[in-house]
Amino acid sequence: MLGFKERRKSRELELGGVKIGGQAPISVQSMTNSDTRDVDATVAQIKRLEQVGCELVRVAVPDEVAALSLAQIKGKISIPLLADIHFSHRLALIAIEQGVDGLRLNPGNIGSATRVREVVAACKDREIPIRIGVNGGSLDKELVAKFGHTPEALVESALAHIRLLEEENFDLIKVSLKSSDVLATLEAYQRLADKVDYPFHIGITEAGTKLRGAIKSAAGIALLLGAGLGDTLRVSLTAPPEEEIFVAFEILKSLGLRKHGIELISCPTCGRTEVELIELAENVERALEHIREPLKIAVMGCVVNGPGEAKHADFGIAGGKGVGLIFRKGEVLGKLPEAELLAALVQEVESYVSNLNES
Questions:
Q1: pTM
Q2: 338 is in which domain, residue-wise?
Q3: Domain count, the chain
């Protein structure tokens, strides 16, 4: 791809049937914000994530009750379940017994090397991958004293724990080096890429609220992917988890790396716009968010660019003064009053998708 480095060659591993690394597509994941001890609420949230395309899901495991809920949760969902473990190797061991598909361990707080080895031995027996999740906010004090809060400290932390796992002949490893600093994150992954070939989980941690976090995540993730780095990703937002999936796929689609759902093309409005374009575009997006087929949808507001853009889309609207044209694959289907455009467009798209699925 023009302007992109060739994707880094990483090892391939499998998490509950989803391949990570190698030539596998860059997968999209999220983390629940429900109380994991509440099985019904957690399963309901994961089901919503599945509906919007989430491919792996991680849950917090703060105590033994949460850990003992994992088998029930796993039995009711359709995507791989990953356990997020901090501070307690015992919770990691319970999660493994509960049949999770993967673990995320923070090497800065899981405890002694002996405890980590116990977890590794249990994962090795069941072939459960471990993500070494290094976070800029929880680095080992000795590393911070030596390197400061720098990319080098992130890399040294990861390498120390990679070596610990390798000493146990364990290589089902993926790595994340997350910081809220975009450029520090990029540098850390670039440094580590020269030293190991394990798959990378990428993202910008603590990126912020829905809009600010989406912008910061897009900037950071695009830089990483442009450098050829990244095998699976999470967009971290202070927002409902479903929003993370939407942003993640929009980033990947914009870079031509995944095809998923609609691509909405809409003009920025100007003094020539003669329909309520902002409201119309938002309503189209909302009405078609359940579509998984990769379709280009144009919602245009005037006669300058509208007809041309709409004609090049799979489906589109080109607005005029209180009216609009509906297009399908370059053909005008009809001219309708503004109030009828949304329903007509949605009907055309859903009919097309239904026919695709039946054929």
A1: 0.89
A2: 262-358
A3: 2
CA 244 – CA 203 distance, rounded (Å): 11
* Residue 3, in any domain of the structure: no
Same domain? For 55 and 179 the reply is yes
Helix boundaries (H) for the chain: 39-51, 64-67, 70-74, 89-97, 113-126, 141-147, 151-167, 182-193, 210-226, 241-254, 277-287, 306-312, 338-358
Q: Is 335 in a helix, a strand, or coil?
A: strand
Q: CA-CA distance, 331 to 314, in Å (whole number)? A: 10
- 116 and 241 co-located in one domain: yes
Instruction: Give me Rg for the CA atoms of the chain.
Output: 23
Per-residue pLDDT of the chain (359 residues; tens, 9 = 90+): 556 789 999 999 999 999 999 999 999 999 999 999 999 999 999 999 999 999 999 999 999 999 999 999 999 999 999 999 988 899 999 999 999 999 998 766 777 788 888 999 999 999 999 999 888 777 778 888 888 888 999 999 899 889 989 999 999 999 999 888 999 999 999 999 999 999 999 999 887 899 999 999 999 999 999 999 999 999 999 999 999 999 999 999 999 999 888 999 888 888 777 788 899 999 999 999 888 899 999 998 876 666 666 667 899 988 888 888 899 988 888 899 999 999 999 999 999 999 888 86
Domain boundary among 254, 279, 310: 254
- Do 247 and 293 fall into the same domain? no
The answer to whether residues 188 and 172 belong to one domain is: yes
Amino acid at position 47, single letter: K
- Is there a single domain that holds both residue 136 and residue 207? yes
Contact 237, 265 (CB under 8 A): no
- With respect to residue 6, please indicate whether it lies within any of the assigned structural domains: no
Last residue of a domain, one of 254, 279, 304: 254
204 domain residue, yes or no: yes
Per DSSP, the residues of 93-117 read HHHHHTT-SEEEE-TTTS--HHHHH
